[in-house]
Amino acid sequence: MLRLCLRRLASVVPIMAIVATLTFLLIQLVPGDPASFLLGTGATPEQVADLQATLGLDRPALVQYGDWLGGLFRGDLGVSLVSTQTVAESLSSALPVTVSVAVLSTVFTVLVGVTLGTVAAVRGGVVDRAVMWTASIGMAIPSFWLAGMLVFAFAIRLPVLPATGYVDFAASPGEWLSHLVLPMIAVGLAGVGPVAFQTRAGVIDQLSRDYVRTLAANGLSRRRIVCRHVLRNASGPVVTVASLGFVFALGGVMVIEAIFNLPGVGTLMLSSIRQHDLPVVQGAVLAFSLIIVAVNLLTDVVAATLNPRIRFS
Amino acid sequence: MVLRRTALSLIGSTVLVAATGCAGSGTGGSGQKTFTMSAFPTGNSMDPWKTQLSQYVAAATYDTLTHVNADGTVVPWLATSWDYSDATTLVMELRTDVVFTDGASFDAEAVKANIEYAKSVTPSNVAAQPYLAYIQSVDVVSKSKVRFNLTSSQPDLPYGFSQQAGWMVSPTALKNPSALADTAVGSGPYVLDKSATTQNKTYTFTRNKNYWATAAQWPRFEKLVVQLMTDLTASDNAARSGQIDYTTVTAGTEITGWKISEGAACAFHGFTIFDVEGTINKPLGDVRVRQAMNYAIDREAILKSVLGGHGDVNASTPFGRDSTGYTRSIDSYYSYDVAKAKRLLRQAGYPNGFSVKVLNNPQWDQMAQALAGYLRKVGIDVELSNHGDDLVQQTNSGKWAMSTSLQAVTGLPYSDFTFLMTKSSSMNPLGNSNAKVNALLAEAVSAEGAEQKRLYAELAEYAAEQAWYVIPALSSQLHAYNPDVVKVVEPERVGGPMLYHLTPVGGE
Amino acid sequence: MTPSITALRKALARPAVWVSLIWLIGISVACAMASVLAPIDPLEQDLSNTFSGPSALHWLGSDELGRDIYSRLLHGGGGLLLTALIPVGVSLLLAVPGGLLAGYLSGRVDAAATFVVDILFALPGLVVVLAIAAVSDNNLVVMAVAFGVLTSGAIFRVVRTATAAARELPYVDAALVSRLSRLRILARHILPNVTGPLIVQAIVHYSGTFLFLTSLSFLGLGFSPETPSWGQMTLNAAQNLDQHPWLMVPVGFALTATVLALNLVGNALLEAVSGHRRPSQLPDPRRPVPDEPADAVVPPAPASVLTVDRLHVCYPGQDGSDRAVVRDVGFQLQRGEVFGLVGESGSGKTTTALSILGLVPPPGRVTSGRVLLHGEDLLRLNEAQLRKVRGSRIGLVAQEPMAALDPSFTVGSQLGEMICLHRRVRRREARQIALSLLTRVGLPDPAAVARRYPHQLSGGIAQRVAIALALSGEPDVLVADEPTAALDVTVQAEIIDLLLHLREESALTLLLVTHDLGVVADICDRVAVMSDGRLIEEGTTEAVLLSPAQEYTRTLVAATPRLPVDAGEERSWA
């Protein structure tokens, strides 16, 4: 187990290095240049060139890259081209928001998805159909539409939850949660389907196994058999799917952050790409990547914990 | 998703020529003493010369040299009076009792420091540049008197000083401008509360107890919160659920218990024809072709459906109801006449129409599509090319014959025509210049009274005839507000309400 | 017809599925024939008639520029439907072979592949797509391919996980042992296990691609502003949701219906591909109570612990009618005896044994009869009551010990769970009891075994553990269903000895189901012979084996291979 963790951790650094490099390269390809953007229309080519020189953008790409990497090792992510705030500052206020949404929505997805999938697999029949239909429809509704409907229902019609904004956990855990409930559902509902399907498939498969009969023959209740034993054995693909759901949630977080006005990394990335604020883009991309890599690691650990065979292979 | 719903959304600072109150939004809070408004994020710093801050964020902590009334007249603020000693010299008298929050005094030296800083910093507030470009140098005549030496005639400079070109920052702070990234050092009505502020997201201000102006001059709230939101859905929802008190809205929005205020028509939105000489796209060089395009569109219909009916039909000129010399006849220069359009095209030698590639920002899709639809009917095949990310670069590149655009009109014709239809325009990548326009401008600026009006009217008609644009109307921006919290003075002239037009219900 | 094709036909016959298929085919055809079915120009604007609801002219209403929604829907769908196939295709092409190899070969190959996939995952999609758009000049196909490559990690992971798990399955081991080529093993043994989750993931992928393409429109990429597309229509509709909610209905319905249809078809395929799935082993609390036997009740003998009386068990056949697998079976077990139930495969002996515990796997069910345990009729008990009987009064030892143990828990933990359940003791004490149980079943190092997982045990040890598990509730009756069939010959003898030992030590009554007459001869006191669901002959072991009364029994005995020893001599396996 420890070896698994160490092995995965060891791969984090090379992964991040490659991601950082690829990102840098890809951003060079994105059309538009910060100097033009900052100077606006009507700027002369000379003015643009001057500003590029001031910002250090006229140096060869390799040099800029080396510079940035060097800063990275020192722990210095650079300064925004647009706002003179340091990238680290922008990220440190944006990261908790996005992570909060992503984690909560994954918890929601897993809880609801596993429950639905299990109920469908165990009960079968009409219940099974109903659950499948619900999960499928949940997958099909665009998240921004869902978000709009949720806000209308729970923030405007029945004003029980706030419509926008984010409150720091440290400031008030209750408020933090209440501001995140609607975004959590809007992001998490789409992932319920795949998790439910995988759970259902896994549980159906496990239910036909002999050990279930042994457990039943020993007098275990159905609930105990399913919740403690079957789910654990079916968990492999479910954990995988859940972590995929998390990653997809992270990808779709930009639209949700805009609708709910959450000052997260998604918004930061979108606005910094639009403004060609390269240091911030790179910092945001790194942050995103780090989260994803951490989640992947966590997934593997959880999967191995639940399935001893993976642990020992 | 970002702001496609309204033609008047601000997309960065790139296409606003003269920044007027066409910025909008506010946030709101509950309770009479706190006013929360939503605004669109623009710059991300507290240095108003380096970036174009949200109008309301800047106005909260920085005073401007002048103010502008709802009816459009420029009135004293930090400057007590002014006078043009000649066409290129503006002399201003200043208040002597104003102190910045760091203790520095406001005087002519401070003004000079500000202007010089503003002109030297790069990158800079794009919206301030058009006016600042006219100032060649600033002389300190005395502690309370300052002289601006201009490069050429610019009668609207006092108005410019009420907008983005007039912020006064403490001269001491300007010596160390990097601190202005997150600290505001102004003399303004509110003070930034850094503990409750997140850069580019939420700005909290508390009333400046040492403010030099009285409550009568500017009634203030105890607390002002500005929430920056990119998405109009988010601000709508925030409004409906009571999180904010004031916001920009699109036509047709209804919020229970709230009122809608309509600004004056000032958004100049449609197609800009860069290539009036026809170097890239030959047909566009022929004025008959450009006029044909203007006859091909149904302005009333576009105004109603795309702009929500808020605004005035226009003859593709940056000339509105508030502009000096305006007459009704200008607006009706172009009627909706498809037959005439086709005839003009035939006369110009294009009986089967022609095709043209148009640079487009996907945020302005609806207007672009609407115009393209009409042009298609007379045989002009418009190919919209989306460049949301490098719009500025593409515009400056000089490779495009036409572009969708959104610009602001102030109602001061000298500035409007200069900023839009002369070589110094920022939306003129091919450097077009029209001798007659230049001549008329030069004549009009030094004329007076009825003669001046006549000249501007002639200029407007000529501009319409030259058809450098295909723009159906001047449109206005809507704001929604909670009448229990804030009183809104609706501007009769340009733009939306300034911060000082939003006052507490029940006074300070 | 092979079972899977039958299953496929059955799955497709469900109304939900063929409606979905009709929708999918229909919408594809309709979009392909858009110019014929929707003659109104999708670009034709009419600003005087915007946001109109459905009307004679505009069947589905008009949008914000007065364009015909019906026309835009048909003209805009084809592109989306086709383009969404590209990323899925690319992902499958890359990820299926990759995942199979990685999961199967493990080691370096796996590590390398996982590394690459981790990088793909960690790349932020938005940046990549923007870059690709720039390089390819907004070419949608290129961007779709890029998206396919980027997201192939999802399918890779699912395939790899399923392959790694499948590799552990016993029959794969067997295939390896019999030296089948790797490719063959992959294709024939592993791939079928993988197709299940793969299909689910592929469908999720296709739906996810819709979202991606919609987001592209949001960024103004991939679709030219003029071409209608569902993505653009969805966004326009979302922006006008407050004031003109109708706009969302046509395109929202089309999108939702298509994704829904895909899911339903996918599920049907999944079921078909899963093929002949073994039924759930979970007891059904709602099973109907079997009938009482029609004739007069025969009172059980006084020393009888377990009486089976006129038992009938049926399974529904392919054509819907009931097929009897156990007919009118009855016998009695005396206290402390080892009773053998013999027969060939399919004779109904296992079903009989399972029905005693109420564990006949659905859809089979007991239709009539009685099972008396100390005079109490178990068949008349409800599920809750029956649960109290299972494990604490009757225990079960099954055929394949490895499969009978939960692979995710250690031996000690499983034992502990049962002990806590039945004896209501604290965990620490349970642990002690578990260790003593393991000792009782003849394991020399119980602590070590308790720490192990089932897949780490040999067959013999696993079966001992299974027996310990069955004993944890201290039952008086033990039903052993072919307990030695899956074991080596030498180990078989050990287990048989163990059972005998346990019978003596704890006065257990043992019902031994087996097809092996040698085992019967070894330890059974009495034996019953079953064939084709009926009980043919019953009596003492000696009597039945040495002088069978029935023809069938004679054949059975004759068929047993035996070493040339004198008749009557007890064979010892020691």
Describe this structure in words.
The complex is a heterotrimer of chains A (313), B (508) and C (574). By secondary structure, chain A is mainly α. Chain A is built from 14 helices and no strands. Chain A has helices at 2-29, 34-39, 45-55, 61-74, 87-123, 125-140, 143-157, 173-207, 210-217, 222-251, 253-259, 265-274, 278-306, 308-312. Chain B is an alpha+beta fold. Chain B has 2 domains: 34-262 and 477-504, D-Maltodextrin-Binding Protein, domain 2, CATH 3.40.190; 267-475, Dipeptide-binding Protein, domain 3. By secondary structure, chain C is an alpha/beta fold. In chain C, strands 6-7-8-3-9-10 form a 6-stranded mixed beta sheet, sandwiched between helices. A 4-stranded antiparallel beta sheet of chain C has the order 2-1-4-5. Chains in contact: A-B, A-C, B-C. Chains A and C meet through helix 1, helix 6, helix 7, helix 8 and helix 9 of A and helix 6, helix 7, helix 8, helix 10 and helix 12 of C.
Give a brief rundown of this model.
The complex is a heterotrimer of chains A (313), B (508) and C (574). Chain B is an alpha+beta fold. In chain B, 26% of the residues lie in helices and 22% in strands.
Give me the secondary-structure topology.
The complex is a heterotrimer of chains A (313), B (508) and C (574).
Chain A: H1 2-29, H2 34-39, H3 45-55, H4 61-74, H5 87-123, H6 125-140, H7 143-157, H8 173-207, H9 210-217, H10 222-251, H11 253-259, H12 265-274, H13 278-306, H14 308-312
Helix pairs in contact in A: 1-13, 5-6, 5-8, 5-10, 5-13, 6-8, 7-8, 8-10, 10-13, 11-12, 12-13
Chain B: E1 34-39, H1 55-61, E2 63-64, E3 66-68, E4 74-76, E5 79-86, E6 89-94, H2 108-120, H3 129-132, E7 135-142, E8 145-150, H4 157-160, E9 167-168, H5 171-175, E10 190-192, E11 202-207, E12 223-228, H6 232-240, E13 246-249, E14 259-262, E15 267-273, H7 287-296, H8 299-305, E16 311-313, H9 328-331, H10 338-348, E17 354-360, H11 365-377, E18 380-386, H12 391-397, E19 402-408, H13 413-421, H14 435-446, H15 449-466, E20 469-470, E21 473-475, E22 478-481, E23 486-488, E24 502-504
Parallel strand pairs in B: 1-12, 17-18, 17-19
Antiparallel strand pairs in B: 2-9, 3-4, 5-6, 6-8, 7-8, 10-11, 11-12, 13-22, 14-22, 15-19, 15-20, 15-21, 16-21, 23-24
Chain C: H1 3-13, H2 15-32, H3 34-37, H4 69-83, H5 85-105, H6 107-122, H7 125-136, H8 140-167, H9 170-177, H10 182-218, H11 230-239, H12 248-274, E1 304-316, E2 322-334, E3 338-342, H13 349-356, E4 365-373, E5 376-377, H14 383-389, E6 394-397, H15 401-404, H16 411-423, H17 427-440, H18 446-451, H19 459-471, E7 477-481, H20 489-506, E8 509-514, H21 517-523, E9 526-531, E10 534-540, H22 541-546, H23 551-559
Parallel strand pairs in C: 3-8, 3-9, 6-7, 7-8
Antiparallel strand pairs in C: 1-2, 1-4, 4-5, 9-10
Helix pairs in contact in C: 1-12, 2-4, 2-12, 5-6, 5-8, 5-10, 6-8, 7-8, 8-10, 9-10, 10-11, 10-12, 11-12, 16-17, 17-19, 19-20
